[in-house]
Design a protein that fits this description.
Blueprint (H helix, E strand, L loop, with lengths): L2 H14 L5 H23 L8 H13 L9 H26 L11 H26 L1 H12 L4 H8 L3 H20 L1
Helix pairs in contact: 1-2, 2-3, 2-4, 3-4, 4-5, 4-6, 5-6, 6-8, 7-8
């Protein structure tokens, strides 16, 4: 673990203990990693997506700072929560876009761009719905998706964050991908 990682973990523990000055100290240490996470999310969005990487980082950080009484376990826990918040911000935006279009877009040849945008929004919403179902069935599997797919963590980092073996994460990751494919087809 690097010096910066140790510093982040130390600050998170202080934040958990009630030190309200921590978020200002934490931001410079985590900004680049949050930006990397946000970039992964934004690049998966449809072309012309209106939320920029920086805006996603800022919105997620505002929501992180607004969390009350979280007992931060580790740096990985922090980034897992950040990944979940970024996903939720994008899902909320997709739902708003869908609502503005009246739910299901009518497919007409003059409006192909709107159809593609609607399908992208529906896809993000379907993924979110599938992940919510997975969380009800098996919260750990849901966390693996957040950490691996949305958080960009390796098998080993995910295993460390969840305190399980890398083999367990690999087996569950294989199952999760198949399960999500099946859920998304419906």
């Amino acid at each position: 673990m690097t010096q910066a990682s140790h510093q982040v973990t130390k600050l998170l523990k202080e934040w958990s203990d009630g030190d309200e000055s921590v978020p200002a100290q934490l931001m410079p240490l985590v900004y680049e990693e949050l930006r990397r996470l946000a970039h992964q999310y934004v690049r998966r969005e449809k072309p012309g997506h209106t939320l920029e990487t920086t805006a996603l980082v800022n919105e997620a950080y505002v929501r992180l700072v607004g969390q009350n009484n979280i007992q931060w376990e580790s740096r990985a826990h922090f980034f897992g929560i950040a990944a979940r918040l970024m996903r939720q911000i994008l899902v909320d935006q997709a739902r708003r876009r869908n609502a503005k279009r009246g739910g299901d877009a009518i497919r007409v040849s003059l409006n192909d761009a709107m159809i593609v945008a609607h399908e992208q929004s529906a896809s993000v919403i379907a993924l979110d719905d599938a992940l919510k179902s997975l969380e009800e069935i098996d919260p750990r599997k849901s966390r693996i998706v957040e950490l691996r797919f949305f958080g960009g963590m390796s098998i080993e980092e995910t295993a460390a964050a969840l305190r399980v073996s890398p083999g367990t994460v690999m087996r569950e990751w294989t199952f999760i991908r198949a399960w999500l494919r099946k859920e998304m087809e419906h």
